[in-house]
Amino acid sequence: MKWLIQLIVVSVLMAMLTWFAGWWMVPVIGAAYGAWAARARLTLVTATLSAVLGWGALLAYDASAGPLGRLLQVLGTLFRLPGVALVVLTLAYAGLLAVSAAALARSLRRLVSP
User: How far apart are CA 16 and CA 52, in angstroms?
Assistant: First the structure.
């Protein structure tokens, strides 16, 4: 239950701070969470899923507010990829940003305070 609450809180933070401050907040939040939960068992999984869920929520909101399908079709033609692949790559990018920052911060925290 504690893990689920952390996942929800960090996901909401990812979405809100990305909305207000931009994509670079994903590694900042990931690093902060990685340092804070350095001893937890699922720190990296939580950081990754939080970024994917947060950005997924933002993409869902954008899809409801505008012609995201048309945009994916045009970009898919430009990159020669299906539109779904662009969504998957976007979510994977967020997850990789968060997990890399969380892993670095977790390792540094474990070095500093054993």
Answer: 13
- The values of phi and psi at residue 67, to 5°, are -80, 65
Whether residue 51 contacts residue 97, with contact meaning beta carbons closer than 8 Å, is answered with yes
CA distance 27 to 51: 9
Q: What is the pLDDT of residue 71?
A: 76
pLDDT tens digit sequence for 45-64: 999 999 999 999 998 888 88
Report, as an integer, the average pLDDT of 23-28: 96
pLDDT of 56: 94
* CB 42, CB 3: distance < 8 Å: yes
Query: DSSP 3-state helix, strand, coil percentages of the chain (rounded to 5)?
Result: 85, 0, 15
